[in-house]
Design a protein that fits this description.
Number of strands: 12
Strand content: 25-35%
Helix content: 10-25%
Strand order of the largest sheet: 4-3-6-1-2-5
Order of helices and strands: EEEEEHEEHEHEEHEHE
Distance between the termini: 54 Å
Bound molecules: flavin-adenine dinucleotide
Number of helices: 5
Radius of gyration: 19 Å
Largest sheet: 6 strands, antiparallel
CATH architecture of the largest domain: 3-Layer(aba) Sandwich
Shape: globular
CATH topology of the largest domain: Rossmann fold
């Protein structure tokens, strides 16, 4: 009797991606532009899996799919907890990372709702920047984006200039509210904007903008505690909340 062995599909090979540019924003936040391997495609809001020395982690992609490079916004998790990020902090232009050939993730723009309330903490803004760049590139219409962005310090927003510009140039498309949770600290001197954690202002702005569960999808991305609170506040009001957690709370 002959036995027929089923062949397992071969594991997709890791590709390589060279770091093109690195920009340090604060001691623990940086932007990185890396090469997009040939044939690498993704939807706005998806993530890539990059690695170094065999250690791999997921990073949401800031760029829109039409852009030539992959732009990443990375927060350092210092030693002894962090594993890949301390290694990334040693790298710069010309250094090579591994990259999985396929992007993944379902935290993508859902066009069936006209309104999109996008709530983030620090690096959690990444998918939203990708949605907006892609939306503008596609010259799409019929939707509105309300971006609420939280951080401890004003210098952690990073994409605030891009979002402010969009909100000012296209007020019928984008509204943008950055908020800081530590207004009394010296590092935030001169801040005159919204204060408090981003999860505590979600209901206020949903009301101010006249958003209803029927016409609005809420997205929450970044700090797991923020995501939980946004769900606790918005789900009982009937809103559907999409979430993307970058890490788990111990
Ligand atoms: C879908 C997805 C998308 C992601 N996108 C991004 C992104 O755009 N930018 C980004 O910086 N990270 C992102 N992450 C997190 C990233 O994958 C790594 O976990 C992170 O960079 C830390 O890597 P590490 O190897 O240094 O530490 P890890 O070994 O991954 O984590 C060490 C410990 O730190 C915790 N941790 C991880 N990240 C943080 C954090 N930011 N703050 C506090 N504690 C943390 C972990 O839960 C763990 O307990 C994403 C994760 C997922 C699942």
């Amino acid at each position: 009797m002959t036995t027929i062995r089923r062949r397992r599909p071969p594991k997709p090979k890791l590709a390589e991606s060279r770091i093109i540019e690195r920009r340090d924003i604060t001691d623990d936040l940086m932007l990185m532009w890396i090469e997009k391997p040939e044939g690498f495609s993704f939807k706005a809001g998806q993530y890539c899996t990059i690695g170094r020395d065999g250690i791999e982690r997921a990073y949401s992609i800031v760029s829109a799919p039409h852009e030539e490079t992959l732009e990443l916004f990375v927060e350092l998790v210092p030693l002894p907890d962090g594993v890949l990020t301390p290694l990334l902090w040693e790298l710069g232009p010309g250094d090579v990372l591994s990259i999985r050939p396929r992007a993944k993730g379902i935290f993508t723009f859902k066009p069936k709702y006209p309104n999109h309330l996008l709530v983030s903490t620090v690096t959690g803004v990444v998918p939203y920047v990708s949605y907006l760049r892609d939306y503008l590139h596609r010259k799409a219409s019929g939707h509105r984006f309300y971006v609420l962005m939280g951080a401890s310090y004003a210098d952690e927003f990073v994409y605030d200039e891009e979002l402010k510009r969009l909100a000012s140039d296209l007020p019928d498309l984008v509204s943008f509210v950055p908020t800081i949770s530590r207004p009394d600290e010296e590092r935030n001197d001169g801040w005159s904007g919204e204060k408090g954690r981003v999860n505590t202002i979600v209901e206020k702005y949903a009301e101010k903008y006249g958003l209803s569960p029927e016409d609005t999808l809420v997205y929450a991305c970044g700090h797991p505690g923020m995501i939980e609170e946004v769900k606790d506040r918005m789900a009982p009001r009937g809103f559907t909340v999409e979430e993307e957690r970058f890490w788990k709370e111990d």
